[in-house]
Write a structure and sequence with these properties.
The protein has 178 residues and is mainly α. The chain has a domain of 109 residues: 50s Ribosomal Protein L17, Chain: A (Alpha-Beta Complex). The chain has a three-stranded antiparallel β-sheet. Helix 1 packs across helix 4 and helix 3 packs across helix 4. It is globular, with a radius of gyration of 31 Å.
Length: 178
């Protein structure tokens, strides 16, 4: 049975695992996007998101606590200057995992992990379709009244065109017979 085993050990000792997650978290904060395996990304998500939450409050204690996890001054500075400013209003979910397929050598499931607020392409796509929509139940009567006349109008417009085309060859056929 698997009771109380929440940590994925990733086939490493605890010291190796902590060092690896620390380095990956520093790389994610500095570069805003990293490529890794899916299992490592899921483990990293649980490691780095509490650090980002802690960075929202810029105090000496917060900086020291984050540094004890990251062990990288540049990453701590980038976290408190750049990242915490962008995620100030977000209530969690600071990272995104995008699957990229399997690795060629060992068929491991690969992914790209990124900080959500730093992908300009997705932010632009999200801001563009802000058309105002209203939700109505069972369709309004106005919509059915408007849509019914449009269809016969379109049919009547097309019908004379077809008749005109068909009349001309008919006149030519009568001339050929005589």
């Amino acid at each position: 049975m698997r009771h109380g085993k929440k940590v994925n050990h990733l086939g490493r000792t605890s010291a190796h695992r902590k060092a690896m997650l620390s380095n990956m978290a520093s790389s994610l904060i500095l570069h805003k996007r990293i490529n890794t395996t899916l299992a490592k990304a899921k483990a990293l998500r649980g490691y780095v998101e509490p650090l980002i939450t802690r960075s929202k409050e810029d105090s000496t204690h917060s900086r020291r606590m984050v540094f004890s996890y990251l062990q990288n001054k540049e990453a701590v500075v980038a976290l408190f200057r750049e990242v915490s400013v962008k995620v100030a209003n977000r209530p969690g979910g600071y990272t995104r995992i995008l699957k990229t397929g399997n690795r060629l050598g060992d068929n491991a499931e690969m992914c790209m992990m990124e900080l959500v607020d730093f992908n300009e392409n997705m932010l632009a796509a999200k801001e563009a379709p802000k058309a105002k929509t209203t939700r109505r139940s069972r369709g309004a009567k106005d919509k059915t009244a408007v849509s019914k006349p449009e269809k016969p109008v379109a049919k009547t417009e097309e019908a004379p065109k077809v008749e005109n085309v068909s009349e001309e060859p008919a006149a030519e056929n009568t001339e050929n017979k005589e």
